Amino acid sequence: MSPAPIRALVTGAAGQIGYSIVIRIADGTVFGKDQPVELVLLDIPQCVASLEGVVLELQDCALPTLVGVEAVTNEKDAFQNIDYAFLVGAMPRREGMERKDLLAANVKIFKSQGKALAEFSKPTTKVIVVGNPANTNAFICAKYAAGKIPASNFSAMTRLDHNRALAQVALKTGTTIGDVKNVIIWGNHSGTQFPDVKHATINKGSNTVDAYTAINDTNWIQSGFISTVQKRGAVIIEKRKLSSAMSAAKAACDHIHDWHFGTKPGEWVSMAIPSDGSYGIPKGLIFSFPVTIDGATKEWKIVKDLPLDDFAKEKIQITTKELEEERDDALKACDEANI
Ligand SMILES: NC(=O)C1=CN([C@@H]2O[C@H](COP(=O)(O)OP(=O)(O)OC[C@H]3O[C@@H](n4cnc5c(N)ncnc54)[C@H](O)[C@@H]3O)[C@@H](O)[C@H]2O)C=CC1
Ligand SMILES: O=C(O)CCC(=O)C(=O)O
């Protein structure tokens, strides 16, 4: 007998990330090839025709794992009874903007969706926020769903930054992605994030070497590497005139896949989740940490007590400060927003 279907919501499903994400959820990449999936696609009423087009294409994919698709334009229908929510729908930044410039416009969406989660969803629903500024939107969403859904069920996506870091290290060392383990993205999904390879390892032939030794270029690790990962989103906007979508959709699916199935033994992933005070990060801030996940309980744990040198502490302080400022601005915008 096949298991009960997993009901997954994708918001902004008519947008560019939505278009790349739904096929991976529907075809078993995220929840497994034997797991039936019901998809709920939400977008704004102006995008209904485009949303219907996505539904037709999903039908045409003839996927054995996809047992239902609903296209909706209201939160009540969208958030009903879901197991996972991929909250993508939000305004993307254009050339020259910082992600936090989106705060005033996008935070209202996440206030409203937090309330909808509280009203219509199950207490076990797990949420990934992709829409920028992702950490702060997740903070707001969790705040307005509080009382019904625990804060630990809310996360923001820094997996794209994590994947970018893996790829840069693999390129630099002439290895493959599978050879590089345990990079970390600390903090905000923004230009202040701290991509860190201090605790990473690289397989070279039959040896496992620490990343600093394998890379053998401290200047690159502490400068070029960090800024490449921090600025990757902006460079892609400059080149494509659109923000990253294929890689963002892949990262969102990696994030939920690992939350559902758990992380591999001896490995961690980067995930922005509510701080419990670890590493001196203020409690409740949605901060990217290294986490391990138990696939049986679907609970994440922050990897504790990694030694941090002064360089790391300074970088972490910068991104913490930015997140505190964003949080305060977002709370103000929510108070002012009459939703
Ligand atoms: N965290 C991360 O690593 C990344 C985050 N992003 C962010 O993801 C978001 C989406 O990006 P794209 O898909 O490229 O944008 P897009 O503009 O192509 O699509 C966004 C979709 O969301 C819809 N939408 C707007 N308000 C909505 C609402 N209240 N409810 C439901 N749908 C709504 C729009 O109608 C549109 O179809 C942006 O904020 C972008 O900055 C993008 C890449 C990576
Ligand atoms: O950079 C942006 O604002 C949009 C896409 C994004 O967040 C990213 O590519 O990292």
TrEMBL record:
Gene3D superfamilies: Lactate dehydrogenase/glycoside hydrolase, family 4, C-terminal (3.90.110.10), NAD(P)-binding Rossmann-like Domain (3.40.50.720). Pfam families: Ldh_1_C, Ldh_1_N. CDD domains: MDH_cytoplasmic_cytosolic. The keyword Oxidoreductase applies. Residues 158-330 form the Lactate/malate dehydrogenase C-terminal domain. NAD(+) binds at G12, A13, A14, G15, Q16, I17, G18, D43, N106, V130, G131, N132. Its EC number is 1.1.1.37. The keyword NAD applies. This is Malate dehydrogenase. The lineage of its organism: Eukaryota, Metazoa, Ecdysozoa, Nematoda, Chromadorea.
